[in-house]
């Protein structure tokens, strides 16, 4: 059988690409946050009234939130890969029905069908 027609192979390939993208995003955001903290070390704690730009607290808060979101997406994608491995990928965790492949293409780590979401 041609591996391109095997749904598990297609899902694994798609998820692998998504995992790579999400890992790179999380690493980039982590590096940006670390660089921001290093750049601000030794600076005055009160930058809320800095006329020269965006306050450190706003920059830190934005990057920390983005990093938290990236890590959550990465965990979901890793869990989806585990479902591929155990054969339950594409099955709704709530009703047990099949999740249409079009929905999995849009959000490859989807756990529930649209009806159960």
Account of the 3D structure:
The chain is mainly alpha-helical and 117 residues long. Helices cover 61% and strands 0% of the residues. It is built from three helices and no strands. The chain has helices at 7-40, 56-86, 101-106. Helix 1 (7-40) runs antiparallel to helix 2 (56-86). The radius of gyration is 20 Å and the shape is elongated.
Secondary structure: helix percent: 55-70%
What structural class results from the helix and strand content? mainly alpha
Number of helical stretches of at least 4 residues: 3
H/E series: HHH
Kindly state the number of beta strands: 0
The average pLDDT score comes to 85
What fraction of residues sit in β-strands? under 5%
Strand count, sense and barrel status of the largest sheet are: none
What would the principal axes of the Cα set say about the shape? elongated
Quaternary state of this entry equals single chain
**What's the gyration radius in Å?**
20 Å
Question: What is the end-to-end distance?
Answer: 34 Å
Q: Unreliable segments (pLDDT under 50, ≥5 consecutive)?
A: none
């Amino acid at each position: 059988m041609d591996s391109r027609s095997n749904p598990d192979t297609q899902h694994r390939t798609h998820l692998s690409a998504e995992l790579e993208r999400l890992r790179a995003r999380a690493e980039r955001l982590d590096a940006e946050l670390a660089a921001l903290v290093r750049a601000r070390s030794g600076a005055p704690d009160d930058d809320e009234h800095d006329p020269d730009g965006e306050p450190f607290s706003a920059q830190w808060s934005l990057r920390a939130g983005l990093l938290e979101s990236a890590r959550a997406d990465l965990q979901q994608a890793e869990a989806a890969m585990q479902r591929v491995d155990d054969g339950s990928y594409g099955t709704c965790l709530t009703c047990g029905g099949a999740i249409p492949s079009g929905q999995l293409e849009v959000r490859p780590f989807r756990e529930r069908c649209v009806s159960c979401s």
